[in-house]
Amino acid sequence: MARRKRHRNKHIATPALLIILVALLPQAKNSADILIPLCIIGFFYGAHLLFGKPFMVILRNRRYLSSHIEDVDCLSGHEFEHFLVPLFEKQGYRTEVTKSAGDFGADLILSKKGQRSIVQAKCYGDGKKIGVRAVQEVVGALAIYKASTGMVVTNRYFTKQAEHLAMANNVALIDRDELVSLMYKYGERPIRAKVILNEES
């Protein structure tokens, strides 16, 4: 899947600590004036390193679960993969996002009751349909990941050729309408767009 790269500064905290230390030195009357603030800062910095990432993942998943389909349309390919994670976890799957390079046609790996499934995620703009290539990638990845089933999930729709190929190879297709149904069923608030409920287990 094509992905848009985002560059983020992951090393802000250490320079910030040094700046605070330099600012405190001229005003310090004794070592306690420096040690106490540094201990407090160190405590929160350590807590951030230990719990910050899981906490941010929880916040991100909650935000995704409360998204509308129009919000999904604005996601990058990589963000769309992570958007799908809480939807599948709500269904009882253990979910793993594969590496961006060399994923061999699987963007997510789902595990449930000893069974493994792979997911190809396709997030495209308006008017774009998903063709047979996405289905072919899933079929080819089944053996590589030792998965029993595969699916393609998109915020758009599939071509007739893709639907025929998926049916012939037992690959599940989740198009825009079914994705909205999942968002409605497992999300945390109603969806603005048209909802087509799918009650099949």
3D architecture notes:
With 201 residues, the protein is an alpha/beta fold. It folds into 2 domains: 53 residues; 118 residues, Trna Endonuclease, Chain: A, domain 1, CATH 3.40.1350.10. The chain is 48% helix and 15% strand. The protein has 7 helices and 7 strands. It has a 5-stranded mixed β-sheet, sandwiched between helices. Strands 4-6 form a two-stranded parallel sheet. Strand 2 and strand 3 form a beta hairpin. The longest helix has 35 residues. It starts with 12 loop residues before the first helix and ends in a 15-residue tail after the last helix.
Task: Sum this structure up briefly.
By secondary structure, the protein is an alpha/beta fold.
Distance between the termini: 28 Å
Question: What pattern of helices and strands is seen along the backbone?
Answer: HHHHEEEEHEEHEH
Number of domains: 2
Number of strands: 7
* SS element count, helices: 7
Level of helix content? 40-55%
Strand content: 15-25%
Largest sheet: 5 strands, mixed
Spatial sequence of strands, sheet with the most strands: 1-2-3-5-7
In CATH, the architecture of the largest domain is 3-Layer(aba) Sandwich
For this structure, the CATH topology of the largest domain is Trna Endonuclease, Chain: A, domain 1
Instruction: Output the structural class.
Output: alpha/beta
Q: Give the C-level CATH assignment of the largest domain.
A: Alpha Beta
Whole-number radius of gyration? 22 Å
Oligomer: single chain
